Amino acid sequence: MWQLYQFPLCPFSRKVRLLLSEKGVAYELERENPWEGRDEFYALNPAGRTPVLRNAERNITLVDSRAICEYFEETVDKTPMIVGTAQNRAEIRRLVALFDENFYNDVTLPFLNERMKKRLFMRAPPDSQLLRSAMKLANDHLDYMDWLIDNRPWLAGSQMSLADLAAAAQISVADYLGGIDWSGHEQTRGWYSVFKSRPSFRPLLSERMDVIKPPSHYADVNA
């Protein structure tokens, strides 16, 4: 059995959870709080970052969400997530990088720092200027997603792909922390509502962090 070492508001852990569920791969969750710095976890991943996927029976340890997703693309035929022509696959990987890197650094990370890290560990108020800047950048990203959805059934093409999973994982964390203003983004909002209705996504929406609560619309599949 696979064991996924993850943190509930880690978007990269969420991306892997979505992929494993869509592919029907059984796994157990192991909560790994990044602030604890456990020696046992550093032995699995010296970088100390989630997610890490471990199968003790097979002596396999996988680190980094993109590497984990590519591993299961290569080893599990069900529900392929990097599909199509070479050009299509390149576009999927481009968008995965866009959300894993740009969206994360522009939006998700600032909200994690200001709304979670400062509150739980630093006992300090969030920087409102940084939050306003992150929300503006979130709006820019959603504008681009609106354009993609206007021109394609899914973000990278004609069918759901790893690009959609990466985007939904990042947006779900930012949305939990109050970082998404959906007004004026009906295309992306509709796309995200479809994701919220999928069986793979429902467990993510039901989880809650101690002290930090999401907005009322967070788990509403119609919102």
Short description:
With 223 residues, the protein is an alpha+beta fold. It has eight helices and four strands.
Verbal overview:
The protein has two domains: 2-75, 3-Layer(aba) Sandwich (Glutaredoxin), CATH 3.40.30; 86-206, Glutathione S-transferase Yfyf (Class Pi), Chain A, domain 2 (Up-down Bundle), CATH 1.20.1050.10. 55% of the residues lie in helices and 8% in strands. The protein has helices spanning 11-23, 39-44, 65-75, 86-122, 128-151, 162-176, 186-196, 202-206, and strands at 2-6, 27-31, 52-55, 60-63. Strand 1, helix 1 and strand 2 form a beta-alpha-beta unit. It is globular, with a radius of gyration of 17 Å.
Overall, the morphology is globular
Please identify, by name, the CATH architecture of the largest domain. Answer: Up-down Bundle
Distance between the termini: 36 Å
Mean pLDDT: 95
CATH topology of the largest domain: Glutathione S-transferase Yfyf (Class Pi), Chain A, domain 2
Structural class: alpha+beta
Main pleated sheet: 4 strands, mixed
Low-confidence spans: none
Please work out how many helical segments DSSP would assign. 8
Strand portion: 5-15%
Kindly state the number of beta strands.
Answer: 4
CATH class placement of the largest domain: Mainly Alpha
**SSE order in H/E notation?**
EHEHEEHHHHHH
- Number of structurally distinct domains: 2
Q: How many whole angstroms does the radius of gyration measure?
A: 17 Å
Strand order of the largest sheet: 2-1-3-4
Fraction of residues in helix? 40-55%
